[in-house]
Amino acid sequence: MGAYILRRLLLMIPTIVGIMAISFAVVQFAPGGPVEQVIADLTNAAGSDRLSGTGGDLLQGGGEGGQYRGAQGLDPEFIAKLEKQFGFDKPPLERFLTMMWNYIRFDFGESFFRNTSVIDLIIEKMPVSISLGVWILIFSYAISIPLGIKKAVSDGSTFDVWTSGVIVIGYAVPSFLFAILLIVLFAGGSFFDWFPLRGLVSDNFYDLPWWQKILDYFWHMTLPLITLLLSAFATTTLLTKNSFIDEIKKQYVTTARAKGLSERRVLYGHVFRNAMLIVIAGFPGAFISAFFTGSLLIEYIFSLDGLGRLGYDAVVKRDYPIVFATLYIFSLMGLFVSLVSDLIYTWVDPRIDFERRDV
């Protein structure tokens, strides 16, 4: 197992380099870079000055805009200073190699437009994403696995049919629509004002005793978690059910029952290990989705300032240090979670030995 782990760790190096290289190359062809963002802001500000009767020194007559859209009339020296400020005065290959060398040392530099270090921004936004991600994973798996097993055991029953209907409807309803419905019903919309509409905690959170801090935290998290749970557990529940049904129909289950083993012993002592392998295989994707991608709209709707919102705003503003830093961190976490998932395979089913596979 040690050799397999070492191989996987070494394979992460070309994988992460490839991810970053492709993303870096795509960005080079994307219009509206940070220099153009600044130029747009300056030209809009200069236009407002003209309308108000004040001149602006930013626009210099006769200047050529070069390769940047909307830069005509700006001082070429000013454009050159902008390029140097954002690092675009260097060739793309040099910029990419410098970026990767810094990222290896977890030096992500400073944001282009927020005037602070990228790592401080990520740490600042992390509590929201961790809160959503951890609780969604815990609650969704805690609901999905027992429910999937129950549905598999009672396949075709009234319980199975009704719960399947609820799951399908819940999965089909877009999470943002359900979030708006919850706000209208329970967050001071048109009916009840039971839950807060924004933030992870109240303004007086640090003045509360410890037990009220816990209650306040979950009071703020209730509606976002309910919204995310609606669709989070649906896939895992149906996957668990179908996996258990496939295993229950196999010969070794019939043999175990013929030997007089109890249904519980058959189900959890024999079927569980084999049926859970496919559920474990989906854990890395569920982990990454819960932490970084699945909560973007929810963060906006409930005014939660997390990593999803930070990454989206960075893409819109072309704040490349944040874009590439979050991509690098998310990719690394995804690769490590995938490795942990394989190790859990061996724990659930000791018959699996990755070192004996042909590579």
From TrEMBL:
<feature type="transmembrane region" description="Helical">
    <location>
        <begin position="275"/>
        <end position="302"/>
    </location>
</feature>
<feature type="domain" description="ABC transmembrane type-1">
    <location>
        <begin position="126"/>
        <end position="341"/>
    </location>
</feature>
<feature type="transmembrane region" description="Helical">
    <location>
        <begin position="322"/>
        <end position="348"/>
    </location>
</feature>
<dbReference type="InterPro" id="IPR035906">
    <property type="entry name" value="MetI-like_sf"/>
</dbReference>
<keyword id="KW-1003">Cell membrane</keyword>
<dbReference type="GO" id="GO:0005886">
    <property type="term" value="C:plasma membrane"/>
</dbReference>
<comment type="similarity">
    <text>Belongs to the binding-protein-dependent transport system permease family.</text>
</comment>
<dbReference type="InterPro" id="IPR000515">
    <property type="entry name" value="MetI-like"/>
</dbReference>
<keyword id="KW-0812">Transmembrane</keyword>
<keyword id="KW-0997">Cell inner membrane</keyword>
<keyword id="KW-1133">Transmembrane helix</keyword>
<dbReference type="GO" id="GO:0042884">
    <property type="term" value="P:microcin transport"/>
</dbReference>
<keyword id="KW-0813">Transport</keyword>
<dbReference type="GO" id="GO:0055085">
    <property type="term" value="P:transmembrane transport"/>
</dbReference>
<protein>
    <submittedName>
        <fullName>Microcin ABC transporter permease</fullName>
    </submittedName>
</protein>
<keyword id="KW-0472">Membrane</keyword>
<feature type="transmembrane region" description="Helical">
    <location>
        <begin position="217"/>
        <end position="240"/>
    </location>
</feature>
<feature type="transmembrane region" description="Helical">
    <location>
        <begin position="161"/>
        <end position="187"/>
    </location>
</feature>
<feature type="transmembrane region" description="Helical">
    <location>
        <begin position="9"/>
        <end position="30"/>
    </location>
</feature>
<dbReference type="Pfam" id="PF00528">
    <property type="entry name" value="BPD_transp_1"/>
</dbReference>
<feature type="transmembrane region" description="Helical">
    <location>
        <begin position="130"/>
        <end position="149"/>
    </location>
</feature>
